[in-house]
Amino acid sequence: MPMPPFQLALINPNTDESDTAEMAAAATAALGDGAEVVALTARRGVAGIETSAESVIAAAETLELVRDTPDADAYLIACFGDPGLDGVRELTNAPVVGIGEATYRAMTSVARRFAVITTLRRGIPELLDGLEHYGVAGRCVGVLASEITVEDLGGDSTDAIVAAGRRAVDELGAEALALACGGMTELETAVRERVGVPATNGVAFGALLAHALWRSGLRTSTVGSLALPPSMDPAALRRS
Amino acid sequence: MPMPPFQLALINPNTDESDTAEMAAAATAALGDGAEVVALTARRGVAGIETSAESVIAAAETLELVRDTPDADAYLIACFGDPGLDGVRELTNAPVVGIGEATYRAMTSVARRFAVITTLRRGIPELLDGLEHYGVAGRCVGVLASEITVEDLGGDSTDAIVAAGRRAVDELGAEALALACGGMTELETAVRERVGVPATNGVAFGALLAHALWRSGLRTSTVGSLALPPSMDPAALRRS
Amino acid sequence: MPMPPFQLALINPNTDESDTAEMAAAATAALGDGAEVVALTARRGVAGIETSAESVIAAAETLELVRDTPDADAYLIACFGDPGLDGVRELTNAPVVGIGEATYRAMTSVARRFAVITTLRRGIPELLDGLEHYGVAGRCVGVLASEITVEDLGGDSTDAIVAAGRRAVDELGAEALALACGGMTELETAVRERVGVPATNGVAFGALLAHALWRSGLRTSTVGSLALPPSMDPAALRRS
Amino acid sequence: MPMPPFQLALINPNTDESDTAEMAAAATAALGDGAEVVALTARRGVAGIETSAESVIAAAETLELVRDTPDADAYLIACFGDPGLDGVRELTNAPVVGIGEATYRAMTSVARRFAVITTLRRGIPELLDGLEHYGVAGRCVGVLASEITVEDLGGDSTDAIVAAGRRAVDELGAEALALACGGMTELETAVRERVGVPATNGVAFGALLAHALWRSGLRTSTVGSLALPPSMDPAALRRS
Amino acid sequence: MPMPPFQLALINPNTDESDTAEMAAAATAALGDGAEVVALTARRGVAGIETSAESVIAAAETLELVRDTPDADAYLIACFGDPGLDGVRELTNAPVVGIGEATYRAMTSVARRFAVITTLRRGIPELLDGLEHYGVAGRCVGVLASEITVEDLGGDSTDAIVAAGRRAVDELGAEALALACGGMTELETAVRERVGVPATNGVAFGALLAHALWRSGLRTSTVGSLALPPSMDPAALRRS
Amino acid sequence: MPMPPFQLALINPNTDESDTAEMAAAATAALGDGAEVVALTARRGVAGIETSAESVIAAAETLELVRDTPDADAYLIACFGDPGLDGVRELTNAPVVGIGEATYRAMTSVARRFAVITTLRRGIPELLDGLEHYGVAGRCVGVLASEITVEDLGGDSTDAIVAAGRRAVDELGAEALALACGGMTELETAVRERVGVPATNGVAFGALLAHALWRSGLRTSTVGSLALPPSMDPAALRRS
Fold this sequence. Notes:
6 copies of one chain form a homohexamer.
Chain A lengths: L5 E7 L4 H15 L3 E7 L10 H16 L6 E4 L7 H7 L4 E3 H12 L3 E5 L5 H10 L6 E6 L11 H16 L4 E3 L8 H8 L3 E2 L2 H13 L25
Parallel strand pairs in A: 1-2, 1-3, 3-4, 5-6, 5-7, 7-8
Helix pairs in contact in A: 1-8, 2-3, 4-8, 6-7
């Protein structure tokens, strides 16, 4: 039985198009043949989302991008803070996955305890709130900040991320690593190989998770809190 | 010792100017002499915020309004979902209070167990998440929806709110009532008198809470997660 | 790029071979071309696992079946109680998914609140413990028992399951339904269509989740609590 | 509109009258014109409450003092352990605030994460129980003991408190500081200035919080668990 | 090996000597030969403790009674609210058991889910706080109030308690019953026989638990938060 | 009144008969005259249970042993992980105690905060899950691993256990110590004396707790989740 065609809309809530390209490439490679990735970049906001205020703007922009792309089979919100995730789920009945949520689902599937490696220390409270929200706080042994900004990731910064990962494994008992930034896509392989534990930032896995939901016939609920808000035009948003 | 002048910026995250006026009047009456209330209305969004998607837009608009009003002594975000609250706290060192948060602080001060009376049933999951976030879920005996929209509040709808409140007290053991909507400002007195328990929607009390923080010298922290995001211009945002 | 071949070992911890066949068919259909499902049935135990004592026996049998099938690319434990899940994860570095865990991951991806529909009332405490363990208790609005045993599922019993599902949606605010039994595989479609919300028992979705983990290069951790127990022979258990 | 007169009864549950005077001065300064503070000192017990047994005695004494002062507009229990707080709320319908509870309300209003600075290490379990009770445990990054007793606070001890505060900010990520002792009233300003984050022990802010409740028409509930115990004489306790 | 003599001090925190006698008889019968029960009655307070204010007074009185009886091998605080329990543990290194705590330990030993049957509805918040404090909230399916006061227990009231117990088993899924009042001692047998599930109010079992701790050489810790408060005279309180 | 005879079945879920003998001796000494201990050793599995997979096998074996010994007055599962505990409770209405559960009940009776001393670091996640399950996670200040295997306990290893205990008291604020292994029975006295805090591994205390339940007439519930599974033969399992 041939796989039906599957179209994933990958939404990058920050404004950096090179991030978008890198994440789209990872999603495309993960999904393989018979899938198409439509990648969209925020038109307003910042190049690297590090704060709550920036995340608020990114969430509003994410909603706009989804409204402009109503026909995808599934959506991937490709920023670790999952900006606007619940709001997007009100706008469509296609599956919607956030890379933060996807990462935590992967973590608890491959390890009993994991650690989070992030960019700036100031983002730790937001991450801790997310761990609570997703019900995985009890499985997380710690959140370590590399003090490298989103925009400085790559190149030499890999060593710092790997070092933080090793510390998490050796000192905190982490058995897997959540890489808390869409910009860490290209670090996955290096961290896995050099630290020796499973690691992901949820872009490739999130694309596959969105596909798994869609392929098994699961759709975002359209009742209760996820019904389409009356203030939005339904005609343009739903597939027949 | 004369009270120093105190200027409160009341931000209405919805677009309904009559809501703004009603809430500003309540805040002004509560604060009394020696205080000034500057009331601002969202320029974009919906007249009654009932969903997560609408709340995302409201949060972005709230941030804009605060950036446009950098000199207030304190800010009151006058929508029960407290849209953008943590983001706003990054933008200013003045105290920032949300009416949802304020209401829950009042509830646990005057009762051991309380109930929440809201507008639409679809908003219950968002409210339950808020109860967890503010650490008061264990004190809440239930959330009751009247199925009256924000815009239909007032007039005959008072009876339905009072009836829900009585049910919460008689059947669920509520000892106080959180009125989960900025639009319920004028219902406070009716609910208190007819149900016989403390009740608030956090507008008047929130204005006083903001004043209490300010008057005791407390300011929003400027370190850690609440430091000003580098992507925002500090010069325009801080008072000397 | 052609999908690499993917072999899933589906372990049925109960002794009913018709259950195994039904679940294997669902997994095979979900995975599509380029995948192979090896289905294994417990040799000891009961035909329908309804109690903690029966689950203990099923867990031991599940471990045996995995030890006997060391070369799979991924494992799916196809009983909602996920018997022996953490133990199996010590024995292999291939991804291991339980259908209970998979179902809850699906629920929180497509809904803010869900309900669980189960067979016997006596199983409710075990399910509630599982909801806590997987960090989704706060998202679950209730567990409803149909009082139909695993072995009596199918045929007329569908109406009872559908009725329980409707009650969960209408009275409890469920937005999606977890069907808490491997034997409910063929009910998925009926429940989705007749209740109008997303529903799954995690067999088809779990097979796809296992594939998603494997395809994105994630493997079960081999450090910390998931290292191979020294008392077990490693040579026979790991793929090169 | 002139503020109505407001009378606050400040109850010091320890026996040290100089503590009472210091706290009353802070409350008076915070409330400003149009308010009167009646300060009462425990007649039995210890000069510095450091243990659970001492707190039990302080709670009973606090109840006595409130029963002897039935006509206040609001009550402030001025010991960080809030001894007898729920009991006092049964005796009066005036607002009742504890400085521990008030401090935690202030902390979560001005910071996402805070630390607690206390006197003796032995009090840490009691403080941790309080953090759970008030629903703020998830917002607290740590409790640090200075090993200075209540009675030795002041003078040289300020340096030790400031040093603990700095450690909390630099090493634990605290964004604000709870000063867990009524005797730390005069330390507030020094800690704020020298550590550079918001700090309070809840005396001045608690007085203002009590006023905010009262001024917005909120009264302690008189139904359910907070109804007047039949064993107490109602006539003497309630205002008309 | 003959049992060493064991002296239990049973503290009744209420003032009703017939309650004391009834509870002492149950403890004596449970402990059997080789044990002695010294029963003490509060000299101040109320005959039936139903509120937080009454519990505060009872706690202070309990401390007094323990200080007056320093030589017991173990202490049993025989009021379900365990008034003063942590305070008493600071005063002695003998084991100290509260009947509320003991009951919950029994419940989780003989059942996966239990219900609490109490006297007045107004006491429910206090009981729910206790369930949280003792870590058993997740095991409790509900708290049912009979609206019979402590003093009216016995005689005809047994039917009401039994009826509440049956409702808890049939409708809520309770597998055992906590009888939340020292005054329900003589109801244990009736409830067990007529409802058909394990039931206890912790008096007989608590006496045996205190003995079990003592007999296995366990003593109340004397370090950290349970060290003797310096304000109390150690000489009179400790056995050699 | 002479104590009725009491027969305790002590089940050692590992295969080491010297462990069984040591634990049986401790239980016999604790129970004293008028009690008989029947000690049973697992026939399959490992000599020291350190992993989840080993625990699964131990649980199945424990069930077998209990089914083979249906007439005991009470059962003690003498492995700290309490393998099969809920399953065993379905098979009998006699009281069933696990030494892990018993230890935690002792800890919270004699201390406000405790630490756990275990064998291998890899077992920490399993222990943390147990602390959550038993509702005592909030009372535990840390889990320390000695990196001594179960089989190497005794002799020189005592110093390492004592050192870990001292660290827990001095650095973490532990007030009592849980010794997380049935094989630590003979260490209890050394740890108590040399560290100076209460300590237990639950064998002696667990035997007494089982007796306390039995003696006070409490039996394992036979309704709800603990009813006898229909797949098991009731005739052989229950006493008349």
